C-alpha cells in the first residue's frame, strides 16, 4: 500500500486588522496572513481539506481584505503544479464554510463534500454577525439560489455543479490515519484534521480553531467566532490532542509558521 502523502497548496494571502486576529488584544494594524488547502494522497483516495478563497468573491464582498493570489495559488493552478486535475479529487472536507476555506470547492466537481452536519446547517441560519464569513455559497449552488430568493430557486441552471454532501458528527477516522476532530466555537460545526504518516509525527491542522502559534501561546482566539467560550475550549482541546498523539500543530493563518511549512510541490510523508 503506498504511503500517505500530504501537500500544502498555497492559496495566497488576505489582510485583517490585528484586533481581529487577536480578539481584544491586538496589536492593531494590517496583518497579512496565508490561506492554504491541504491535499492528502491516501490509499483510499485523494482528499482536500479546505480550498482557500475565491479572488473575485473577496474583491466583490470584502475588498478591504486586499487579496493577493496568483493563478498558481488557485485550486486548479495549485493542483496542476503537482500534476493533478480538479477531477482527480475524490473528497473535499471543509473545516467550516467561511469564505476563505471553501472558495475553491466549485472546481472539484467529481468530489464528495464532507462536513459537519451543524456546519452545513449554519450556512442557512447563521447569526447576523456571521454574514460576511458565510458570504461565499459557491460550494452549494442550490443553497445559494434558495438564499438568493424563491424566484431563482425554482429552476436551478443545468450547468451549475451539484455537489454530493456527506455530513458527519463527532470525531471520525474517515480513512486509516485520517482523523476529523470536533473543534467548535469559531463556527458551529468546525472540524480540525489530523493525518498520521509513516515517516514523521502526525500533522494536526487546526483550521480556524487556532490561527497561529501566537494565538495558541497567548490562548487568545480570533474575533471571528460564534461562541468565544467554546472557541477557547477547542483551542485547549487542540493542545491536548497534540500532546496525546505527539502531533505537530499546523495553523490556518500564521504568517510566521507558514514560511517554514513545506509547500507543494514538496510534500510530507
Ligand atoms: C479572514 C476572515 N475575514 C473575515 C471574516 C472571517 C475571516 O476568516 C470570518 O468571518 C468574517 O467576517
Ligand atoms: Zn473562519
Ligand atoms: Zn448571510
Ligand atoms: Zn480562515
TrEMBL record:
InterPro entries: MBL_superfamily_lactonases, Metallo-B-lactamas, RibonucZ/Hydroxyglut_hydro. Its cofactor is Zn(2+). Pfam families: Lactamase_B. It comes from the Bacteria. Belongs to the metallo-beta-lactamase superfamily. Coiled coil: none annotated. Keywords: Hydrolase, Metal-binding, Zinc. This is 4-pyridoxolactonase. CDD domains: AHL_lactonase_MBL-fold. One of its GO terms (molecular function) is hydrolase activity. Residues 34-253 form the Metallo-beta-lactamase domain.
Amino acid at each position: 500500500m503506498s504511503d500517505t502523502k500530504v501537500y500544502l497548496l498555497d492559496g495566497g494571502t488576505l489582510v485583517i486588522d490585528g484586533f481581529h486576529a487577536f480578539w481584544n488584544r491586538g496589536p492593531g494594524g494590517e496583518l497579512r496572513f496565508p490561506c492554504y488547502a491541504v491535499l492528502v494522497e491516501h490509499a483510499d483516495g485523494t482528499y482536500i481539506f479546505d480550498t482557500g478563497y475565491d479572488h473575485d468573491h473577496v474583491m466583490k464582498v470584502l475588498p478591504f481584505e486586499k487579496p493577493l493570489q496568483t493563478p498558481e495559488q488557485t485550486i486548479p493552478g495549485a493542483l496542476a503544479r503537482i500534476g493533478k486535475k480538479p477531477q482527480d479529487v475524490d473528497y473535499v472536507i471543509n473545516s467550516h464554510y467561511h469564505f476563505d476555506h471553501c472558495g475553491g470547492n466549485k472546481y472539484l466537481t467529481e468530489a464528495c463534500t464532507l462536513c459537519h452536519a451543524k456546519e452545513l446547517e449554519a450556512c442557512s441560519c447563521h447569526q447576523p454577525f456571521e454574514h460576511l464569513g458565510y458570504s461565499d455559497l459557491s460550494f452549494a449552488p442550490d443553497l445559494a439560489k434558495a438564499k438568493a430568493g424563491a424566484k431563482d430557486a425554482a429552476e436551478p441552471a443545468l450547468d451549475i455543479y451539484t455537489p454530493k454532501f456527506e455530513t458527519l458528527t463527532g470525531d471520525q477516522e474517515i480513512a486509516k490515519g485520517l482523523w476529523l476532530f470536533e473543534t467548535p466555537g469559531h463556527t458551529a460545526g468546525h472540524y480540525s484534521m489530523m493525518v498520521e504518516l509513516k515517516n514523521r509525527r502526525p500533522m494536526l491542522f487546526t483550521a480556524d480553531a487556532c490561527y497561529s502559534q501566537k494565538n495558541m501561546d497567548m490562548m487568545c482566539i480570533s474575533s471571528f467566532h460564534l461562541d468565544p467560550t467554546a472557541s477557547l475550549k477547542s483551542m485547549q482541546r487542540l493542545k491536548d490532542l497534540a500532546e496525546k498523539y505527539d502531533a505537530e500543530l499546523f495553523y490556518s493563518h500564521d504568517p510566521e509558521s507558514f514560511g517554514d511549512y513545506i509547500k507543494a510541490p514538496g510534500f510530507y510523508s
